[in-house]
Amino acid sequence: MQLKNSKKRNEQQKYIIFTLAGKQFGVNIKQTREILSCKELTLVPESPEYIAGLIDLRGMVVPVIDLQLRLNIKKEETSQNNNKEASQDKNRIIIIVELENLTAGMMVEEVKQIKELNGEEIENLPSLAQKIDREYIAGVGRTEEEELLMILDLESVLTREEMNQIQELEDNVVNE
User: How far apart are CA 11 and CA 62, in angstroms?
Assistant: First the structure.
């Protein structure tokens, strides 16, 4: 199987492994700029549901996308009480990425590790799953515990229209 967007099958690349809804995902470290503890978010009225808010990153206003909401990943039901959501958001991590002309934060639950994988360790989605419109899934790898690990292409998580919408949102906030 050939990894989508892969240059060489045996080329080692580093991936940031993180969790969303308790499941592990990975993203090529080359798509990221930095990793931050969750900062105070400024909520933006009438913004898309997946926009968690804005942060001030060294004088730059940066929109933060709740990756779990954007990818429509449902939280597993637990017997624990869920009225701790506000405090859970404060414990989350923001991965800063550059998406064409937009700097954005992707909010995740936690960063687990940075792991080296080569192209042979990452497979394409099975053909049945490929029929689902999931352009942002670059492939499937495995964690140290042999759990499946979805490798995301962060540049494909947002459509061009959504990136333009976020850019306009950011511009409106900065110009006010």
Answer: 33
